[in-house]
Structure prediction request, 650 residues.
Amino acid sequence: MTSPVIDGEWHRLHPATPFLRGGIVVIAIIGYLVVQFRDFFIGIFIGSVAGREPHADPFTRWLLEHSVLALLIVLGVLVAIVGFGWLSWRMHAYRVTDELVEEREGVIWRRHRRGRLDRVQGVDIVRPLFPRLFGAARLEISMAGSDGSIRLSYVASARADELRAGILAAASLRRRAEQAASAEGAAPLAVPGPLHPRDTGGATSRLQDAIVARANEFLAPELREPVDAGSLVTMHPGRLVGAIGLRFGAMMLVVLAGAIVAAFYRPELLFVVIPILIGVYGFAAREVLRSLQYSIALTPDGIRVGYGLLSTTNETLPPGRVHAIELSQPLFWRPFGWWRVRINRASASIRDGGAAQANTTILPVGTIEETLRVVGLILPDWSEPPVFTTSPARARWLRWFSWRLNGFAFDDRAVVLRRGRFWRTLTVVPLARVQSVGVEDGPLTRALRLARVDVHTVVGVVRPRVGALDADDAVGLWRDVESRTLGAMT
Amino acid sequence: MTAVAAAGQEWQRVSPRYVWVDLITVLIPGAIVTGGLTAVPLASRIAWLWLLPAAALVIVVLLLAFTPRRVRAIGYRLREDDLVFRRGIMWHRVIAVPYGRMQLVDVNRGPIARAFGLAELKFVTAAVATGVVIPGLPEADAEALRDQLVALAESRRAAL
Prediction:
């Protein structure tokens, strides 16, 4: 259980943290000032060349007259910013013990957060582009609950990896915890890359080492962890572009056509169309960028998902923390046999906008073999049940095309719901994770002797439900899910 | 009796006094909306606009008329390992919650329910969709039921 990072001591974050957190803002402010006072700076440095023309702008004139005072003010503000940043860095600390993760921060408003390791739902390492250049990463330890994550931004990249491995090993109640810990010892997690030079002597060599290490980190931000051979799924970027293009294809074409037509007939409409164009294409491009360099693999601590080209994210899901799995196939993916896999998990499901979506997509696009392999990582040896109980023919009125497919099946660990003819989805809910189950009907469905079953799991993108079932089948499904859930809980 | 409505038998009913609570909670907003809509034809002096308050009145009366049946349709049952809850007359809904899945049990008392000595019991699981709220329990019963459920949940606790 003991890992060098789980020492119960308070640690500070990466020293560059205040700069990285506020860095972009500071740079933006400096850039703005430079643009605003370009004339002023030119006047200072090459004033003689331009000639001492009287400035029309009274503010600039005032600045020129009181340049010492202005410089002092700027310096004072800078010192205050740096000082506050340093102070808040001093006050921000975390520690990990065998049972808890704790974080405390704040200069004026103090905050103290602690989470129990046995409630850890996943550990993510996020490396946004800018901090990544400095070898820093954000560690997110998510707990059950909507706002239950502890975010350490930023810690040194290698330390983030160690912390994650340590936390996951301490958190896992399984027997494999010991193995994982010893495996960490065997395979040093820092940066054992192929570029790593053996000899370490002399200051220049050490500097070289540091540079090489940084370059390695930057080029290959993957974890050096023992990976189960054969469980690795990676993705070709071309397929990703194609898949996302097909998913948004129709909408993109419509908007593009609209833009061309508008440009011909009513040029002033371009003011409306171009932002929409940028929005749609920007969204698609972001989807692609975020999912590039995608990989998923099984490690001793759980399922590891990594993605991102410039800003990378590395998530680890401990086993048994997946509450529902959804395989879906948009219409235009059908000819290529591509599928997408999304999951529900108990944490961070209602997080800030776009990030939440990435968090729930565990396979952005994959062939059926890859899809099944990914599902197999979550539920070992899972395969699609051969026989589904489907809707009766009278459900045709409600499920025009899909009534033959719409249905459910059980295997020994999960309930499987199938929906859709054109936009096909298959939802798998592990019975051990079902929270409750409901059956309902309305005036119309009752007249047709149909009913709907809702399997309640934690909130997320996947909503496991199946409607338009024969009422007796639905009640049977409801009863079976309940009794099997009770069986799976013990 | 349809299949869904018959999904479980021997329901425990909520207190008949809860009918009054429900009637009042329908009546107050109903009266306000109807009264407010009356102002529209009065102010505009357009005769057909009287249809608005009339429609509101019909809806309120219908809701009131169905309230006793709606309250009678609420039922719950404590089984060995789970709690089964049902409600609805037009839209039947039957939900089963294993005791081991309960995270919290809340007892809430609204002002109107308190006047009738009633309380409602709310079960919270990790799933928001569960949404099981048993209204109209006599206060003593609600507390006893809560303690019983907490004890049951404790003995069958399962990890999230």
In short: The CA atoms of residues 43 and 92 of chain B lie 42 Å apart. Chain B has four helices and seven strands. The mean pLDDT of chain B is 87. The first helix of chain B runs from residue 18 to 44.
